[in-house]
Amino acid sequence: KVVGPAYKDIAAKYAGADAAKVDELAKKVKAGGSGVWGPVPMPPNAKVTPEDAKTLVVWILSQK
After folding, report:
1. Which of 11, 14, 39, 53 could form a disulfide with 26 if both were Cys (CB 3.0 to 4.6 A apart)?
2. Long-range contacts of 2-7, Cβ-Cβ distance < 8 Å, separation of 24 or more
């Protein structure tokens, strides 16, 4: 929690996410961002493909 939330906390926040939300979160993985989980920004992951970003999001959302 020093630099970001636990995967289980992300999964709990977005429980029941539909396909549109998964796509939105995958875009955030690629672009980076800040403010959702606190002041520490998440750096962009430009080298991650859109398909891999979506796979990562689906996996993170499956954590309990």
Report:
1. 53
2. 3/40, 4/37, 4/38, 4/40, 4/42, 5/37, 7/60, 7/63
59 three-class SS: helix
Are 11 and 34 contacting, i.e. CB atoms less than 8 angstroms apart? Answer: no
DSSP reduced 3-state for 33: strand
Phi, psi dihedrals of residue 24, rounded to the nearest 5°: -60, -45
pTM, two decimals, is 0.88
Which pLDDT does position 1 carry in this prediction?
62
Question: Does residue 30 contact residue 44 with C-beta atoms inside 8 Å?
Answer: yes
Distance CA 18, CA 58 (A): 11
